Amino acid sequence: MNNTPSNHCNCDTQLIDTIAEHYRAILQLIGEDPSREGLVKTPRRAAKALLENTRGYRQDAEAIIASAVFEHPGSHMVIVKDIEFYSLCEHHILPFFGKVSVGYIPDGKIVGLSKLARTVDAYARRLQVQERLTGEICDAVDHALPNKGVIVACEASHLCMKMRGVEKQESTTFTMHYKGAFEDVRLRQEFFELLHQQK
Ligand SMILES: Nc1nc2c(ncn2[C@@H]2O[C@H](COP(=O)(O)OP(=O)(O)OP(=O)(O)O)[C@@H](O)[C@H]2O)c(=O)[nH]1
Ligand SMILES: [Zn+2]
């Protein structure tokens, strides 16, 4: 398991070639000529892009967080908001993308801020549904760090609802997941008020 995430596909050549073979067959099935000049390299490019967009399967999110946990006596809410992400919906393998905000209340330790963003990526770069993505991020923070509560809010646009199917261009989907002290509606309100404060 690689705990130092890289954005690029370092997958072995055989895996790339095998996926590329399937893309070549798909190109033929949709009526294209995979040997024409513009498409010759496409199956390998598409294979590498797919592996890059699903690199989260080869990352251990909880280990990413655990690699930067620091002592801290305070217990006030910490929020990293508007972490942008790109994911693929598991039903259509089409992109959904948006922003995730993560809040937690420390209990003796804090986490390196970038690790929260890396955790979002580790789960987003898989085949997902938005609800599970939101819950997995929340669980990973909860498991990796002593805390009094964790909350994750996610707002996303799904291309499977825009460029095909129901074709609704303006709809976005909002999901949240929370634990511990965030069961208290007043604390959730404080979190959302802080999220919506103007910069
Ligand atoms: N809950 C949830 N549903 C999702 C997500 N991404 C895509 N979907 C939905 O998954 C559902 C799959 O429904 P199906 O009826 O099996 O597939 P479909 O015939 O392609 O459906 P349409 O999109 O309505 O054309 C659709 O309603 C999608 O909008 C997600 O992240 N969460
Ligand atoms: Zn979909």
From TrEMBL:
Entry keyword Lyase: no
GO cellular component: cytoplasm
GO terms of biological process kind: one-carbon metabolic process; tetrahydrobiopterin biosynthetic process; tetrahydrofolate biosynthetic process
UniProt keyword list: GTP-binding, Hydrolase, Metal-binding, Nucleotide-binding, One-carbon metabolism, Zinc
Pathway terms, separated by semicolons: Cofactor biosynthesis; 7,8-dihydroneopterin triphosphate biosynthesis; 7,8-dihydroneopterin triphosphate from GTP: step 1/1
Residues reported to bind Zn(2+): C89, H92, C160
GTP cyclohydrolase I domain boundaries: 19-195
Catalytic activity as recorded in UniProt: GTP + H2O = 7,8-dihydroneopterin 3'-triphosphate + formate + H(+)
Annotated GO MF terms: GTP binding; GTP cyclohydrolase I activity; zinc ion binding
Enzyme Commission numbers on file: 3.5.4.16
Keyword Protease found: no
Gene3D superfamilies: 1.10.286.10, 3.30.1130.10
Similarity comment: Belongs to the GTP cyclohydrolase I family.
Subunit note: Homopolymer.
This protein's name: GTP cyclohydrolase 1
Name of the gene: folE
